[in-house]
Specification:
The chain has a single domain, classed as 3-Layer(aba) Sandwich (Rossmann fold). Strands 1-2-3-4 form a four-stranded mixed sheet, covered by helices on one side. Helices cover about 50% and strands about 15% of the residues. With about 100 residues, it is α/β, with parallel strands linked by helices. α3 links the parallel β1 and β2. The chain is globular, with a radius of gyration of 13 Å. The chain starts with a helix and ends with a strand.
Amino acid sequence: MYSAWADSFNAQMYEKYAQAYPIYRETGKKLVELADIRPGMSVVDLACGTGIVTERIASALEGTGSVIAIDLSATMLLTSIEGTKDAGQHGRYIGKERFCDA
């Protein structure tokens, strides 16, 4: 059974762990390197969670190209949107119920 509270709690806890433990950011950095993401590319971040890798992708694009972040959890997606906006980056976000440009 879906619970908005559980979804929100999970997103908050995931983001807290991601900020506390460097392995999350290091893994994201390695994924972007392995994918050889460069400026001008269009990239999909499937199951983007709170946007740890999305932020790395957007940074690698250097303001050109596009990133599309997709996640089933609306709360995870909102956290991702907030993180990329704070970093001055923009993208397209796709959730279970709607599309959103940020």
